Structure formats: C-alpha cells, structure tokens
# Entry
Amino acid sequence: QVHLVESGGGLVQAGGSLRLSCAASGRTFSNYGLGWFRQAPGKEREFVAAISWSGGNLRYADSVKGRFTISRDNAKNTMYLQMSSLKPEDTAVYSCAASSRYYSTSNSGLYDYWGQGTQVTVSS
# Structure
C-alpha cells in the first residue's frame, strides 16, 4: 500500500507559478512510476505529467509542455510539479498517482494509488 498526500495548491494570478508536492508513505517509493493528473469542474480527468522510477524518463501533456516540470526526490519520498506561466485553463484539482510499473505512463488505468488532490485556481 502507498499513501499519497498532495500539497502546495492555492490561488494564483495568470502568469504566476506554484509548486505542488506529493509526499508518499508505505512501500518503497523508488519502485513506482509517478504521475500528476488534473480534473476541472465538469470535465474528465486528464493527464498532466509522469516520471519513471529513476526520474530519467519524463512525459508531459502537450498543454503543459514547456511550462510545467515534474521531478522526484526518492530520498525524501516526494514528487514535485513546478508550474509556471499559469493560465486560467490550468484551474483544476491536481492529484498525484503511483504506478507499480517502473516507467512513466499517461494511462490513468495503470496507476494503483491516488492522492486526494489539491485545488489550483488561476485567476485572469
């Protein structure tokens, strides 16, 4: 079992930055591929970014490429999402997830554990 807790969400103006954190406890953190997903009101959950167990393989949604950076610190059992140049359309609940697959994946069905989510609101 892996328990995930997100933090760092909040209200920010368009063009601003936020850094989300995902702290994990339970099984060996470094054994898991990790990802960030988001869900806006009335919309389906969508993939944001993913990182492999070693941090060597990264994936990004086209909508965030060049603005968001995913990273992980296996020694601290924590994953991060640095978000810059935020837009109102980035407003959503952001959730982190862990997959028993070592590689990075955008497929939400391959993730085994999910956090509760943290709200990000970008005002125009």
